[in-house]
Amino acid sequence: MSVEEPLFRVVRGVPTAEELAALVGAIVSRSRPVAGSASAPVSAWARSARPAGAGLAPGSGAWRASGLPR
């Protein structure tokens, strides 16, 4: 039976179980690929939830136009 080296170790202090869980969660989330990468297509449903913004200009009636379909 072989003994594996730990992925990380605490060198100072005595962290609580919650602090260690937060650290492990941060490390795991940083090591995973990004869910919404540029190569993944975006559905029309997801696009409809995003603010239009790009084609709108501030001014009279802009708030009303922001709610209209494009």
UniProtKB/TrEMBL annotation:
Residues 51-62 have a biased composition (Low complexity). Residues 51-70 are annotated as: Disordered. This is Acyl-CoA carboxylase subunit epsilon. One of its GO terms (molecular function) is propionyl-CoA carboxylase activity. It comes from the Bacteria. It holds the Pfam family ACC_epsilon.
